[in-house]
Amino acid sequence: MALSDSQISEFAEKLYEAYDTKEPVEPLSDDAEFTTDEAYQIQAEMVDMIKEDGGPVVGKKLGLVSEAKQEQLGIPEPIFGFVMEETVLDREPIPTDDMIAPRLEAEIGLILGEDLEAPVSTQDVLAATEYVVPVVEILESRYAGWAIPSAQDVIADNTSTGHVYVGEDYTDVTDVDFQMEPVTVSVNGEIEATGVGADIAGHPARPVAWLGDRLEGLGHSLEAGELVMTGGINAAIDIEPGDVYNVRFGSIGSVELRAE
User: Fold this and answer.
1) Cβ partners under 8 Å of residue 39, min gap 6
2) If phi over 0 gives left and psi between -120 and 50 gives alpha, with beta otherwise, what is residue 61?
3) Which among 50, 99, 208, 224 is most buried, taking Cβ atoms within 10 Å?
């Protein structure tokens, strides 16, 4: 049975309150089943609430970019969310005191130099990309204990958006071998995870092309000046206060962060 408009608003308000107060809630699917399209409706209302206090959307982010993750959560495609201005941080420590249960992922970020309109190909994405940047995403789930029973729950929660750190190195797109671009994630000097760009759907530009087409039916598009986060390369790492995290890519730069 389809969710009513009031149920969609109720779920969006529930997630926004958890976002605002940092008090986790139980998964929405505990109360009602809902479709992927309904999950994006909940997400849209939640994002609108965040924008009222947290500033505009400055980018978009992809999730579940591997077939293994998609199969695990029972959805045949990637998912996406929005990057809000207030979530993009400078080099201050990771604010664990102001988060529920943060986790860290390394990502390849694209800064678009041109708008992209559907249909979008991988080559279109590369042609429209002005710079490639190293990105560290600090994931945050509004669900207690990271309980995520469905992809729809993740979508509704704006794909577990927490904070984003963008590296200071801006690399020309023609200087990057995307599929072979390596990354190493270290914690207190010990390697915890590794990966390469090909771990992102075979090529980081592929899910971005998918996103360009997917957004068309929702009244959005990929726009010049935006940051597009192509999806996590490594399995998410739990963040602990006092630890130092170093995300080092092969050619596009690195980011070092300390958790407070």
Assistant:
1) 151, 152, 153, 155, 156
2) beta
3) 208
Total-model pTM: 0.95
Rg (CA), the chain: 17
Buried b (16+ CB within 10 A) or exposed e, 183-215: bbbbbeeeeebebbbebbbbbbbbbbbbbbebb
Phi/psi of residue 27, nearest 5 degrees: -55, 145
Superfamily (CATH H level) for 5-181+196-240: Fumarylacetoacetase-like, C-terminal domain (3.90.850.10)
Token code pair at residue 182: 């390596």
N-term to C-term CA, the chain: 45
Q: What is the pLDDT of residues 207-260, one digit of tens each?
A: 999 999 999 988 899 999 999 999 999 989 999 999 999 999 999 999 999 999
- When pLDDT is cut at 50, 70 and 90, the band that residue 183 belongs to is very high
What are the structure tokens assigned to 239, written together? Answer: 């963040």
Contact 24, 142 (CB under 8 A): yes
